[in-house]
Amino acid sequence: MPDVILRKTITTCEEIFHEGGPVAETPQKRGAILSIIANPFAGRYEPDIQGFMEDLKPLGLSMAQQLLDMLGGPDAIQGYGKGALIGEGGELEHGALWHAPGGYAMRQLLGTANAIVPSAKKVGGVGARLDVPITHINAAYVRSHFDSMEVGCNDAPRAGEIALALVMTTGARVHSRSGGLEARDIKGEDGLR
Amino acid sequence: MKAKIRKIAVNIEETHSEMGRAISPPTRKAVAVAVIENPFAGVYQEDLSDLMEIGAELGGLLGDKCVAALGITPEQAESYGKSAMVGEKGELEHAAAILHPKLGAPLRKAVEKGAALVASSKKMGSPGQVLDVPLGHKDAAYVRSHFDGIEVRLNDAPRAGEIMVAVAVTDSGRPLPRVGGLTTDQAIGTDGLR
Fold it and tell me: What is this model's ipTM?
């Protein structure tokens, strides 16, 4: 399978102090990392693509590690998500190759992370934005941690590129008050509650 | 602190290759943006000195954030820029009051020296709009390899009563500079121009 050719990395760290309500004692942090890589399958229909998942594993681990370093390490992380933007020379299925290497990289480095990693993917032009969904890392039904973060880059993805995203958060929405399952009440064993 | 900050975001862009050519070490740009309450939203205020003070606070805070995010020492910074986007209940002059009178001195402290004018842009905008922050060499404005820019946007800012204030710092110029002009090794960097 082809090498992973990295053109660009974009990291984003948001600190959210308030959103019109009381100022948080500890600001919520949301971090994203976006890697712009060459799409080895652009411009043609390639039936056999799964080998590229293996090639993406080291990139996934490196991206997850950079996110952890930015946000304060595994113990600080409470939510996560992933996504892919595929340039117009590729197809949606190419973005699906990110599910395993992206998701399992984060779960591996976090240690305990039992919930499925939510994801979004789409084909888009240069400058397209992707809303990456976020849920609690151990219990997908935790309502306070449903969130999302927008990622994108003005010069990507070009037609022959894919932009791969990982996102993590350090807590609930800053003024979470919509009820439902609370993080303090979860069992966190089945990944759901 | 005078500034009432709702949110701070820091973005780093690293370019590892371009047109199939490896960029080693990668060029790196940082932009730090603060979303603040506009104390004069919806009113005409003659005296803008509060906004000037806010500019002084944010010049240091955001400059330091960029330098820290790049993981460099202040003297390793090579170019800088500043911009503001005012939500619809403010006026362009609010951006000017933040950016021009007092933001520069603490920013220059954050990047050490900074003999050159800090390139700037300003506009009125709404949540999700793009703010393009211009970049120029921090000690010699004519260094051609370092004319650049970085885009920043936040999907939820600026709301009508807010202002987005951005500072950008790099440790490098464009990835593949080849349009000539003054180069970094020719620059003297004392008059801010050459």
Answer: 0.83
